[in-house]
């Protein structure tokens, strides 16, 4: 069963009396353990789709289902809860808190956890897993771009999501460092977590299981990558 799927999804924005159709009735599905890349020109609807997958926005019409449940039946509080339980986010500019160490940054999504000791242990395990066991107490400005992104990935995984959404995760990294991030995604999908990324980097798209090519709010191709 898909982690998240959409059928005939339309998203319109109304600004100043004008209506913009950002998504024009698209279908999508993301299965456990899949690595999906969303590509397309600027303004084609990539961010809109990512926001939809992240339950940050709901469609104007059409059906979006998270684990088989229609997201429109969720109230705001439930949508937020499902997002925290199910979905992790990674950004181009990392969005780490500069005054917290690596391990503290990873703990942030669980700050209200009633078992701080377990939270510290989980954060430590995750940082070891992404190869940063020696950097637990370093601050973001003491880390390289690739290391910061790996801290951000660890943070995104701390609540054991089923879906990891990555917005241009390699956009600020060189090719070799980007490859390290792809290797992390590979390990994550091996454990059954689905990863969806918006990317402008061809090498990222080439390593995806599937590429969703958006053009002007429609899906032009949804093809198996040759190099899968
Ligand atoms: P992409 O991420 O591919 O650049 P977007 O999803 O950001 O595309 O945008 C798709 C279309 O929707 C564009 O025409 C954009 O101008 C419009 N759009 C996006 N967000 C908003 C918004 N909040 N209000 C009005 N129009 C928007
Ligand atoms: P994120 O919010 O995902 O961390 P940012 O919004 O900080 O990323 O990105 C920084 C700036 O770079 C933004 O103003 C954005 O418009 C721009 N940007 C994003 N992706 C690209 C890209 N592929 N090429 C050039 N500029 C980009």
UniProtKB/TrEMBL annotation:
Keywords: ATP-binding, Nucleotide-binding, Transport. GO terms for cellular component: membrane protein complex; plasma membrane. It comes from the Archaea. GO terms for molecular function: ATP binding; ATP hydrolysis activity; transmembrane transporter activity. Residues 4-228 form the ABC transporter domain. PANTHER family: ABC TRANSPORTER ABCH.1, IMPORT ATP-BINDING PROTEIN. This is ATP-binding cassette domain-containing protein. It comes from Halobaculum saliterrae. The lineage of its organism: Archaea, Methanobacteriati, Methanobacteriota, Stenosarchaea group, Halobacteria.
